[in-house]
Structures are given as C-alpha cells and as structure tokens.
Amino acid sequence: AVVTTTGDIVMANAAMARLLGCPAGELTGRQMTSFVIDGDRAAVVEGLAEVAAGGDGFRLDLRLTQLDGRTVWVDLGVASVSATAGRVTDLVVQCSDLTDRKHLERTLADQATRDPLTGLLNREGMARRLRDRGTRAADGQVLAVVFADVDGLKPLNDAFGHAAGDDLLREVARRLRAGTREDDIVARVGGDEFVVVTSLPDKGPDPAAAVVDRLRQQLRGPVAVGREITNLSVSLGASVLTEGDAATAVARADQAMYADKQRRRGSDLC
Questions:
Q1: Catalytic: which of 115, 149, 184, 192?
Q2: pLDDT (tens digit, 9 = 90+) per residue, 162-191?
Q3: Who's near 116: CB < 8 A, 6+ residues apart?
C-alpha cells in the first residue's frame, strides 16, 4: 500500500486488501493505523512520523484487525517512496502474513511450559509465570506456596500399571484446578509432585494453613483409576512467599510437605 505521511491510504493492491479483509477500492482514504490493534498502534504512529521526517524505514511484527474483527499477525515494513526537494511526500507499506508462524511459535512455547499428561504448567512454566506476575502480594494479602505430593503412586503403578497412575495424576490436577482461582499458579513439577501459588488474606500466625486445609478437602475422596477405585491420599505443606525468593518458599513448602507425610504415615489421616 502507498500511504501519506499522516498514514492515509492512497493505494492498496489486492494482496493488502485480502490481508485487511476489505475490498481494495474501499481502502482509499482510510487511516492505515486504524487497522493496527491498540497495543501496537503507538509504535506504528511513531515510526511513520520518523520516516516522514526523513528517517530510515522500519519493520515491526504486529497485529492488524480485519474488518470482520479477526486479528492477523504481520511483518510490516515502511519506507519513503518519493520525495520532492528533499521532502518526503508518500510512504510505502509492505505486509507479510505471519499468522500461521505466530500460532506455531505460541504452540511450541506452550508445549515447552506445559506438562503433557495433566495440562498444568511444568517447572519452567511455573518459573516463567512467577517472573511475569512478580512475587509481591496486594496490600493485606500474602502469597502462599503449597507443595503437594501424591502418596502411594509407585505401589499403584506396580499393582495396576502406569495407565492407572496416570489416571490418578490427572485427577489430582483436575481437583487442584477446581480448588484454585483462575489467576493462581498450578504446576506439576515432578512425577508425583505439584505446586500451587495463591494469594490469601494475611491473617493469623500461619495464613498459609487455611489454603492447605482447603486443598486437603478438595483432594480428599475416592478416585477411579482404570477399573479400580482407590482413596486419594496427598501430603501437603505450605509456606509464605517472600518477595523475590520463590525458590526458598518452594523449598520450605517441600519440607513442610515431607513433615506432613511423616506425620500421616502413623495415622489414619488422608
């Protein structure tokens, strides 16, 4: 497409029209930046102004919104196309559709951070989420880390096969998701080990105890594994996450979980 220095479309070919989901004849006079999603528009406006002032062209990967509302990823390049007495009068805009490539990149990135058996985050995915959201709790809240370890997974695998053990792990994942909020972090970090990071009110001497009690109730009860029914038993431990020290909080929760496992081995608790 050819656009003015202010971004008005002067001419667009059939390929650009298809990319924008608009007949080529109807593009003339439209603002090119009106097709750019809000989050990417400022960078395009700034780039157009720089090229119009005589600067070098630029390229960006960004998202365009078609007339029907669908979003497409494009590689957008802009350069000056003509000048009179050193003054830029028009710009040329070239776009290549990157939608399929971006979808593939997103799929591969998701696979790298997801546990294929349960669909939960894996250890790397949990670390990335913690980096993205930060470890600072809202006022009056604390971030709690809960470490959960499924009891008796190996004997179950030995007795009924690994498919039964997989059924059990998927059920643990389902119950953990059901017992947490959408913005909580729920991850499978080992064969029979899970971690939950959640915020809760900063009340009492041990605020994390409340989330342990809630998840223990959520996990309790029989579960079907293959053709067998077994009681689900999970050891739990928790700690409060101090800002910037997630690894230590996970280690403390792991220690608390191990103490819970030792205590429950001599009792009838589930």
A1: 192
A2: 899 999 999 999 999 999 999 999 999 999
A3: none
